[in-house]
Design goal:
Glucose Permease (Domain IIA), elongated, 3 domains, Helix Hairpins, alpha+beta
Length: about 400
């Protein structure tokens, strides 16, 4: 009898606890009890076993979903990395092409300069050839003959000066030819270097373009695989979107219903306090904004996969107290698909707040109650689409989600 009394107290205690925080346990069934009592006890234990199996099955399904999401997240990270690599490779290819264009321009200028030099050298080579032919045909200059054949001293001086000018012209021609031949050789060497640089850059460009194509193929394969994995989550996502749409529509209706009462109670000032006093700004595990989590809400303004996290996640210890961020009317949503156990508060003047993934509600809390700012309304948990204990907190203005940190200063 004593054991049955203890069991009855345990059952009563379980009934008092919030549904989300109960731990189901079997009780001892006494065969000596009346048959109806004994059979009811066995049926209760059978129900407990089935409940445990259901919880395990749900957990397995959630774990599978989380694994798929983890794969998708890894693929998104890979795609982002590949995007960065592709952008860097495209910039490098553009830089290489620009260098090749510059070298081609330099080569054209250098080729024009070389052509001019070669033309000058050809003219001077021709002059030198003519001079050598003359010397070869007439022999070297005979200064004794100049002196003996001069008709006068002035004629001798003129002949000597002419001979010196010819000799100086010959030396100058040889010097200029030597310089220009050196310039031609140097210009040809420079052209050879620049042409080799162009060849090397072209090979580099080909290698860069080949690597770029490999990265593009890897990127396409990663995106295709992510799309395949997303198909596995489409059913859950569709269910989540449908329920969220229903909640959003109900939020709008509840706001109209409770707005005046909430304002009268002192809410709707647009001033909010931190909803989890036991865990401050440092506990924010995810902020408001674009997200790669497939089961978030679609937002075209966000990059692929176009999802947005509509609130802030505060990851404190399991069971941490959650308080009302402002005075308002509460409405309870136990067991929703996405938010899990959820609280909606209407504060008036278009303001409302959402508290999701709760372990359970504060004792005695009921929908339609007016709750003052700072009052405990729930406890942190991990219900719904959640990968660990945290509070999902939203601020809405006329049912449009906004960044809570605008008001909270986080």
């Amino acid at each position: 009898m004593k054991s049955r009394i203890i069991a009855a107290i345990a059952i009563a205690s379980l009934a008092w606890l919030p549904a989300s925080s109960r731990v189901a346990t079997a009780i001892y069934c006494y065969p000596g009890d009346p048959p109806d009592v004994y059979q009811a006890c066995l049926a209760y234990n059978g129900g407990i076993n089935q409940q445990v199996n259901n919880q395990r099955q749900l957990q397995n399904i959630q774990n599978q979903i989380h694994d798929v999401q983890a794969q998708i997240n890894a693929l998104y990270a890979l795609v982002q990395s590949l995007n960065n690599q592709i952008a860097a490779q495209q910039a490098l290819i553009a830089q290489t092409k620009a260098k090749i264009v510059q070298l081609d321009r330099d080569i054209r200028f250098k080729q024009a300069e070389l052509t001019r030099l070669q033309a000058d050298v050809a003219v001077r080579d021709q002059l030198l050839d003519q001079r050598m032919r003359y010397v070869d045909g007439h022999g070297p200059m005979n200064y004794v003959e100049l002196v003996l054949t001069a008709s006068s001293f002035n004629d001798l001086v003129n002949r000597m000066m002419a001979a010196q000018q010819i000799a100086a012209s010959d030396r100058k021609l040889l010097d200029v030819l030597a310089v220009e031949h050196t310039q031609v050789t140097s210009a040809q060497a420079d052209l050879a270097v620049q042409r080799s640089q162009v060849s090397a850059l072209l090979l580099q460009q080909q290698a860069e373009e080949a690597d770029l194509e490999k990265n593009k193929k890897t990127q396409q394969a990663a995106i295709a695989l992510a799309a395949q994995l997303e198909v596995q989550l489409q059913g859950q996502y569709a269910e989540l979107v449908a329920q969220r749409a229903a909640i959003d529509a109900q939020v709008a209706a509840l706001a109209r219903q409770y707005d005046a009462a909430a304002v009268k109670a002192g809410g709707g000032s647009g001033v909010f306090e931190w909803p989890e006093p036991g865990c401050g700004f440092g506990c924010i595990s995810q902020g408001f904004g674009c997200s790669t989590f497939y089961l978030e809400i679609y937002d075209a303004a966000c990059p692929y996969p176009h999802r947005i996290h509509t609130g802030v996640d505060i990851a404190g210890p399991y069971g941490t107290q959650i308080v009302a961020a402002d005075t308002g009317v509460v409405y309870l949503y136990p067991g929703s698909v996405g938010y899990g156990n959820m609280v909606l508060m209407v504060h008036g003047n278009g303001y409302s707040t959402v508290y999701g993934h709760l372990a359970g509600y504060a004792p005695g809390l009921r929908s339609g109650m007016i709750v003052a700012r700072g009052t405990t309304i729930a406890f942190e948990g991990s219900t719904g689409w959640s990968t660990g204990p945290h509070l999902h907190f939203e601020v809405r203005v006329y049912n449009q989600y906004r960044d809570p940190c605008i008001w909270l200063g986080c």
